[in-house]
């Protein structure tokens, strides 16, 4: 079992990238065993997800187990001393259920729809031509 935590995120999503860049800078400054994999360049077979599944939510690999969504954030925060209290708080049953509902029903779908729109724009050439 490794102490390493791996985070799979969408670096093409400005919101995702900003948040992960913040965590990555914190992890580097403290030499924490956390690695960050951009889903656009990562070996997704290692993660057991497709590119579409990976783009829909955050994924974290810890102790050879894959966590996604709110559970992924909790697993990441547990590995970062500054965020451990947040991991404990969000891990509480009622708060966890509420955070999961908000993430699954609001935040992740909004970010995913924006991702799809960015992909669609990138697939069109100048003046909207494919």
Keywords:
130 residues; alpha+beta; 4-stranded mixed sheet; 6 helices; 4 strands; 14% strand; globular
Q: Could you explain the architecture of this structure?
A:
The chain is of the alpha+beta class and 130 residues long. It has one domain (5-128). Helices cover 57% and strands 14% of the residues. The protein is built from six helices and four strands, in the order E-H-E-H-H-E-E-H-H-H. The mean pLDDT is 92.
Question: Quick gist of this model?
Answer:
With 130 residues, the chain is an alpha+beta fold.
SSE layout and pairings?
Elements: E1 5-9, H1 14-29, E2 34-38, H2 44-47, H3 51-56, E3 59-62, E4 65-68, H4 70-78, H5 84-91, H6 93-123
Parallel strand pairs: 1-2
Antiparallel strand pairs: 1-3, 3-4
Helix pairs in contact: 4-5
């Amino acid at each position: 079992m490794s102490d390493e935590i791996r985070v799979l995120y969408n670096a093409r999503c400005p919101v995702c990238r900003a948040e992960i860049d913040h965590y990555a800078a914190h992890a580097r400054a403290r030499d924490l065993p956390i690695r960050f994999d951009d889903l656009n360049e990562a070996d997704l077979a290692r993660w057991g997800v497709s590119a579409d599944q990976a783009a829909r939510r955050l994924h974290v690999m810890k102790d050879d187990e894959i966590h996604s969504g709110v559970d992924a954030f909790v697993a990441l925060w547990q590995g970062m001393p500054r965020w451990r209290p947040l991991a404990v708080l969000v891990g509480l049953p009622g708060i966890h259920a509420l955070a999961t509902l908000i993430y699954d029903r609001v935040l992740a779908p909004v970010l995913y729809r924006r991702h799809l729109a960015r992909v669609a724009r990138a697939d069109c050439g100048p003046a909207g031509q494919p």
